[in-house]
Amino acid sequence: MARLGWFVRFMFWVGVVIDGVAAAALLAPADSPIRGLAYPGVLGSNVDYADGTRSAFPLMLGWTLLLAWGARRPIERRMLLPLTVPVVGGFMAVEFLDIHLGHAALAGTVPTFMLQSLLVAGLSVAYMAAGRLAAGEGQAAAG
């Protein structure tokens, strides 16, 4: 059971790191190498479009802090895990739309899609593990 608890906490911190890097990338100057992390596959001709997405910074920063808070008591705050899935899914949907509209190239977004897919899978497994741990704690308290 200790391994499950470690995994749940680990997935919270994975989310913190990924969101933190993405938040920093959203504010990065145009010539910064980290900028590409926030704008995967965005074509050079669409820099103005990418600049317009900086408004996502408060969301990324806020969600980073929320996940860090959740990592402090991961079993009690496990509901943050499934709530993070639609946020990641929303970013994926926007990236697909960017490709469809010609703002981004598919080849440039593949690594990001893979990372996001792994994150969604990990968060989902961590949520199920946290539920098992919570049920076990409830049974132990009742018994």
Gross morphology is: elongated
The amount of helix comes to: over 70%
Sheet bearing the most strands, described? Answer: none
**N→C terminal distance:** 18 Å
Poorly predicted runs are none
Helix segment tally: 6
Number of strands: 0
Fraction of residues in β-strands: under 5%
Which value, in Å, is the CA radius of gyration?
Answer: 17 Å
Q: How many domains?
A: 1
Order of helices and strands: HHHHHH
* SS-derived structural category: mainly alpha
Mean pLDDT: 85
Please, could you describe this protein's structure?
By secondary structure, the chain is mainly α. It has one domain. Helix content is 78%, strand content 0%. The chain has 6 helices and no strands. Helix 5 packs antiparallel against helix 6. The longest helix is centred in the last third of the chain and has 37 residues. The relative contact order is 0.17.
Secondary-structure map:
Layout: H1 2-27, H2 35-38, H3 47-52, H4 57-72, H5 80-101, H6 106-142
